[in-house]
Amino acid sequence: MTDVRVVVGGAVLDGGRLLAARRSAPAALAGRWELPGGKVEPGETPEEALVRELREELGIETEPLDRIPGEWAPRPGLVLRVWTARLVSGEARPLQDHDELRWLAPGQEDEVDWLDQDRPAVAEVMRRLGAAEVSGALYPSGAPYAP
Ligand SMILES: Nc1nc2c([nH]c(=O)n2[C@H]2C[C@H](O)[C@@H](COP(=O)(O)OP(=O)(O)OP(=O)(O)O)O2)c(=O)[nH]1
């Protein structure tokens, strides 16, 4: 059996919005938008990999919440799995692998050109956000809880 490498994508949520990141490399993917994240390293859980990648790429601390059901193949040998994650602290900046970031509210998801394989997960995350089904991620990080 050939090993399949897991790529974790983070649907980072804050204040009822989803973070989208525009890839700066490689050339074939540059300019397309994705859920920031990366490959799970040996010995890591996907959640640990997600927290590490989001810290490295965006300078933020996050808490993984739920896995979005399903998996998608960016290319042979890779499988993309997506978790929602709550922004705990920091302000996302494109430090590595990205050159632009946007926070999107439900209904704005079509304003950026997502990688094809990210679209089903993005649609499900936006559906949950619109239906206020995402616990812990509807209020801005650091803001007092005020329903
Ligand atoms: N990070 C991320 N990668 C995605 C998404 N969708 C998607 O098809 N991919 C693809 C692009 C890449 O071929 C692969 C992930 O590679 P990566 O370059 O982000 O991984 P990494 O940070 O661990 O980088 P490296 O170790 O290969 O240098 O998965 C997504 O939403 N997020």
TrEMBL record:
EC number(s): the record gives: 3.6.1.55
Question: Locate the Nudix hydrolase domain: which residues?
Answer: 3-128
List the catalytic activities from the record: 8-oxo-dGTP + H2O = 8-oxo-dGMP + diphosphate + H(+)
Q: Which cofactor does it need?
A: Mg(2+)
One Pfam match, by short name? NUDIX
Q: What keywords are annotated for this sequence in UniProt?
A: DNA damage, DNA repair, DNA replication, Hydrolase, Magnesium, Metal-binding, Mutator protein
Carries keyword Magnesium? yes
GO biological process terms held by the UniProt record: DNA repair; DNA replication
PANTHER family from the xrefs?
8-OXO-DGTP DIPHOSPHATASE, NUDIX HYDROLASE FAMILY PROTEIN
Homology family: Belongs to the Nudix hydrolase family.
Name listed for the protein in its UniProt record: 8-oxo-dGTP diphosphatase
Per the UniProt record, the source organism is Streptomyces paromomycinus (Streptomyces rimosus subsp. paromomycinus)
